[in-house]
Amino acid sequence: MQLLIGSKAHEAIERDLQDGPSAVRRPPHSLRDSRWKNVIPERRFCTLKEGVALKGRGTFGKAPVQIILKPYHEDRNPIFFDGDHEIPMDIDHLRRGLMRCLALEGEKGRRLEIVEHIISLMGAFRLNVDVIVQAHGRKPLLGRLINWAAGAGNSFPSFPECNGPFIDAIHEVGIRKLKHPDRPVATVKEPVYMGFKRGSISFEPPRDGEEDHMILSNRVNYPQCSVIDDQLAEFVMNSEQYAFLARSRPPNIVSWREKLARLVKGHKAPYFNMNRENCVIISKKGYINKDHAFDDKDGFNWEMQGHEMVDKSAIFYLLERCLGVVLRGRWSTYRISHAEEYVFLRALWKHRDLFEHLTVPQKQPSINPLSPALQIDSRLRQASDSVLPATESSDESALSLHHPPRSGACPPCQKENVPRP
Q1: Is 173 in the same domain as 196?
Q2: CATH number of the domain encompassing residue 341
Q3: Which of 50, 102, 267, 309 makes the best surface tag, with the fewest CB within 10 Å?
Q4: What is the tens place of the pLDDT at every residue in 351-363?
Q5: How are strands ordered across the β-sheet holding 280-283?
Q6: Taking the model in full, what pTM does it have?
């Protein structure tokens, strides 16, 4: 796999657009949560007025877990706690997890599974919170055995409304804006593209009129399911739209040949916490449990694309955190899973000299020491019309990885009621 840059990337992107559907769908204004209008700052982080705690069963293994969002005010990146294991939320600790999902790996190879939903939420709402995952009950035997064999730890629950319970809890406790300096706005100097066996992913600088937005363009195509046509959807990322569509359940496309057909009959899977409540099930004959709350006036149901928005946005929100910037541009994905996104993210992280500032505030933010290194100077390589291998860095001296001090790191909380900060 190669990372295409410049004109070669632009040509590849144009080829994908020519092969795709001509109509581009955009979610209507009716699919928004007006409670979040003008609440979340664009370039400044915020935190919660007090911690929140939710309980559920892990997606893998069905272990009872409690998820705690603990606010903090320091200029640092969030930290995840899987029991007593501390895992920084950064690209160096990101791994491909079970079932092609994303995981954060700590010491001794212990992984915290299904982190993409909570990372997406923290990015969309600009939250400075540590995330604590605690097991509060006995794990089923089968779940313990499979997790032990796979080297997995706890996993986040799949709630019936995905991130909806977190959004409601955050709205209830309230948001507190932090007095940190605004983060600079950045993008790639030229288009970058990576193709895979069945899909592709790319990142382009903002087009005319899109300088103030981060746009996610997602194309899905399931040849095994004729009910779902070739769809191309665009999302202008904002908190109002996200708060509504982030309640979308993940799709499960099933047929009578597949073992997951037991879900259609109402049977429970022995290892996965997946059922008719927390998944939208689609067979060759159509939707089994469609939620019409996501229908637009044309009858198009946005639930599947809404969950794609949650999954795909986690990648560039994590990239924002680690670069110390706010990204602008067009992020395009076509028929890829988290496994391919992980490869693309690692390639961009290795070639950080491909980014440049669009605007720089008078006072540089101190939330991440990487951000000043994104400024363009004579050291940066001209990337025009070049091809880079995804596994090699073009300029190892362009940026040096340095983790900020963790003086504000919090120990795992042992109580369900989290004290006010």
Answers
A1: no
A2: 3.30.1700
A3: 267
A4: 999 999 986 444 4
A5: 251-253, 280-283, 286-287
A6: 0.81
